[in-house]
Design goal:
The structure holds two protein chains of two kinds.
Chain A: H1 3-11, H2 14-21, H3 25-51, H4 61-89, H5 91-95, H6 98-119, H7 121-124, H8 126-129, H9 137-159, H10 174-180, H11 186-193
Chain B: H1 3-10, H2 13-20, H3 24-50, H4 60-88, H5 90-94, H6 97-122, H7 130-154
Helix pairs in contact in B: 2-4, 3-4, 3-7, 6-7
Chain lengths: 201, 157
C-alpha cells in the first residue's frame, strides 16, 4: 500500500470525516495548536536568544533548560497531538501539500539540531559557561539554526492552508508537482474527480 | 456609526493592494504569527514567574526588564502587520464578533500590561504579596489569550 493510498484510506475513516465536517472541532483544535505555539516557540525562542547571548544574560543557561524546558516539552507534546489531529482531519490533501512537506523536513532538521546540541561536547561542558553571558560558538550556532528553523516551520505551517500548489489546482510548475508528489495522468485525475456513488445509478 | 469608516479603509490603496495579491495576505499573516510566538514567550515568561512557575530563582523585576524590549518590539511588529491585514478585510471585521472581542481584549491587555503589571513586576519583591503577583499573572494570561484566540477566530468567521 502506497502512502497515497494510506492517506486515502485515512481520509475515508469515520473520525477523519467527522473532524473535517464538524462545525467547531477543527477550529478549536487549530486554536489550541496556535495558542500552544506561544508557549512552545515563545520559550524555545527565549532559550535560543540566550544561547546567542542576546537576552536573559544574567540567567544561567541551566536554569532555562531545567525550569523552562519542561514547559517547552509539554507544549511540544500538545502541539504534536493537535497537529496530528489537524493532519488526520484532511490527510490526503495535506500529504500532497508542498508547505506541509517543507514543514516536515524543517521539523526533522530542528529536531536533529536540538539533539546534536544537547548530546554534544559543548552542552556536556555546560558548567564551564553556564552563567557566562558570552556563549561558546557551538551554542550560538545551535541557537541561530534553531531560530531560523522554527521561523521556517511556523511560516510553512501557516501556508499549508493555501492550495496554490495542490494537485487539484492548475499546474504551476513541474518542479512543484514533483515536490507535492502529484499524479496528473488522466486516470489519476478521473479517479480523483469521480464521485464514489454516481448520481442516478 | 463606524461602518462608513470601515468601508473607506477597505477600499483604500493598502487594502486593495493586499486583496489583489495572492501572496501578500498569507505572507503578512505568517509574519504576524511569528511575532505572536515572540510576544507569547515574552509575556508568558514573566506571567509564569508571577504564578511561581518557570524561572523561580530569578527576581521578577529582572525577568520583566529582560522581557520588556521583546514584548514592546513584537507588539509593534504585531500591530504593524495586523493593521494591513485588517485594512484588506475591514468590512468583514466590522461584522465579526471575534474582531471586536480581540480589539477590546487588546486594549485592556495593553493598558493592564503597561500600568498595573508594569508596576507590580518592577517593584521590590516584598512590596506586593504572592497573591497580588498571582492575580496579575492570571489576568495577563487571560487577556492576552483572548487576544490570540480572537485573532485566530476572525479567520474562521
Amino acid at each position: 500500500m502506497s502512502l497515497h493510498n494510506l492517506m486515502q484510506w485515512m481520509a475515508d475513516t469515520e473520525w477523519s470525516v467527522g473532524l473535517h465536517e464538524s462545525r467547531y472541532a477543527y477550529s478549536i483544535i487549530e486554536s489550541i495548536h496556535v495558542w500552544t505555539l506561544c508557549v512552545f516557540v515563545g520559550f524555545a525562542v527565549l532559550l535560543d536568544l540566550r544561547l546567542l547571548g542576546i537576552t536573559l544574560k544574567r540567567v544561567p543557561v541551566s536554569q532555562l533548560t531545567t525550569r523552562l524546558l519542561p514547559w517547552t516539552k509539554a507544549a511540544f507534546v500538545v502541539m504534536v497531538i493537535s497537529g496530528i489531529l489537524l493532519f488526520y482531519a484532511i490527510p490526503l490533501r495535506t500529504y500532497h501539500n508542498v508547505f506541509f512537506r517543507a514543514k516536515a523536513v524543517f521539523l526533522l532538521l530542528a529536531g536533529l539540531n536540538a539533539w546534536l546540541f544537547h548530546t554534544g561536547p559543548t552542552f556536556r561542558r555546560l558548567g564551564e559557561w553556564d552563567t557566562s553571558p558570552l556563549t561558546p560558538g557551538a551554542a550560538r550556532r545551535a541557537g541561530a539554526f534553531s531560530l531560523a528553523l522554527w521561523a521556517a516551520i511556523v511560516f510553512s505551517g501557516r501556508m499549508i492552508a493555501y492550495n496554490w500548489f495542490d494537485c487539484e489546482s492548475p499546474q504551476k510548475s513541474a518542479f512543484m508537482d514533483t515536490i507535492a508528489g502529484c499524479d496528473r495522468t488522466t486516470e489519476a485525475t478521473e479517479a480523483r474527480d469521480a464521485p464514489s456513488v454516481l448520481p442516478g445509478h | 456609526m463606524l461602518l462608513p469608516y470601515f468601508q473607506a479603509i477597505e477600499s483604500g490603496p493598502i487594502g486593495e493592494a493586499i486583496r489583489n495579491s495572492t501572496w501578500l495576505f498569507p505572507f503578512v499573516e505568517a509574519f504576524h504569527l511569528l511575532a505572536l510566538a515572540v510576544i507569547g514567550g515574552a509575556v508568558l515568561l514573566v506571567d509564569f514567574r508571577l504564578l511561581g512557575l518557570g524561572l523561580k530563582r530569578q527576581p521578577v523585576a529582572e525577568l520583566a526588564r529582560d522581557a520588556q524590549p521583546w514584548l514592546i518590539g513584537s507588539l509593534i511588529f504585531m500591530i504593524g502587520s495586523g493593521v494591513p491585514l485588517f485594512m484588506s478585510e475591514a468590512i468583514k471585521c466590522y461584522y465579526s464578533f471575534a474582531f471586536w472581542t480581540k480589539m477590546s481584549a487588546l486594549a485592556l491587555a495593553i493598558i493592564f500590561t503597561f500600568t498595573v503589571r508594569r508596576r507590580v513586576t518592577l517593584a521590590d519583591e516584598a512590596r506586593f504579596g504572592p497573591r497580588v503577583l498571582r492575580a496579575v499573572g492570571v489576568i495577563s494570561i487571560l487577556l492576552w489569550s483572548t487576544v490570540g484566540w480572537g485573532g485566530r477566530w476572525i479567520g474562521f468567521s
